């Protein structure tokens, strides 16, 4: 029989390993917690994300600081760095900034200009920009330069010009002068200033692209603004009056041309009209007037070329007075209406009707209304119309016509 040596450790080997691992468990947990804490602290400094439209400038703590080589710039995406290095981000997209500047115009008016600047950084010049100016280049470079150029340009114009008519020109000059000054200003670094012998010399114009300098607003004293507005109003009133004068001048020319045309027409027509043609046209007009149903009385002028004069609404029939019993007075059946009178003829006196009386008896006085008949009323109207016509038309000299009228007969 095989004998086994005696041992004071009564636990089996598996139980001893479990006992040793159980005793080391707190140490493992502590190590994991420490590693997690270190990772939490280190990961932000090791992993960097470059957003869209940005670029990162690498700064190495133990290898010369800012890396000026454009090939070492970190473009968009996830980048892994050493924990002791840093990455600075710059926006390469179009940027805009607005600032307010005080200036004095040519005529001594103090004004406030609000200017908007639009620009974009250049990719290859980012390391030099970061090393010489830094991330706050807008406050250090753009605003002072734009403000200085704006004051210089505004001082060349009056307040009215800057406020109304010259704004576009002012903002264009601000941009041009700013670009010229940026092109003349240089940033440089010599080999003696660098431990590794890095050197450069570039102008500020190579750092960025200046697109626009927009004058968004101009603030003048209220009294100056009111005076400018009144002046502009008067200017447009003067323009209105000038247009009115021009319109009247054109109207005068138009009337002169029209008068010349009428005169030429009259000359042409006068040369082509003869006396025979005028008499023929007068005969035609007389016939047409005689045939018209509206023609009432036609007064023929004296002379061979006399033209007719129409007197209307005088032949309206007048109702005769009611006949009395036993009174046979009235117009006979074959009575004729009054004839047309020549111009200037005296009006005939209407005859007085006498009633029939028996032989041997004295004639009685005519009745009071015997003159109110149709004939006397018509003759009275003709007389009045002829009198008005004679006063308005100068009579033509000629033989005095004889008086003629149709007698109003009574039984």
Protein architecture, described:
The chain has 411 residues and is α+β, with helices and mostly antiparallel strands. Among the domains are: 13-70, no CATH class; 94-220, 2-Layer Sandwich (Tetrahydropterin Synthase, Chain A), CATH 3.30.479.30. It contains eight helices and twelve strands. The chain has helices at 13-46, 126-132, 137-154, 159-165, 167-184, 222-272, 275-291, 374-392; strands at residues 47-50, 54-60, 65-66, 77-80, 86-91, 95-104, 110-121, 186-189, 200-203, 208-219, 297-300, 308-311. A three-stranded antiparallel beta sheet has the order 3-2-5. Strands 6-7-10 form a three-stranded antiparallel beta sheet, covered by helices on one side. Strand 11 and strand 12 (308-311) form a beta hairpin. Helix 3 (137-154) crosses helix 5 (167-184). The longest helix is centred in the middle third of the chain and has 51 residues, at 222-272. The radius of gyration is 61 Å and the shape is elongated. It starts with 12 loop residues before the first helix and ends in a 19-residue tail after the last helix.
- What average pLDDT do the residues reach? 74
Do you know the CATH architecture of one domain? 2-Layer Sandwich
Order of helices and strands: HEEEEEEEHHHHEEEHHEEH
CATH superfamily of one domain: Band 7 domain
- Overall structural class, as computed from helix and strand content, comes to alpha+beta
Number of strands: 12
What's the helical proportion of residues?
Answer: 40-55%
- Give the CATH class of one domain: Alpha Beta
Multimeric state: single chain
Strands of the biggest beta sheet: in what spatial order?
3-2-5
Q: What name does CATH use for the topology of one domain?
A: Tetrahydropterin Synthase, Chain A
Number of H/I helices: 8
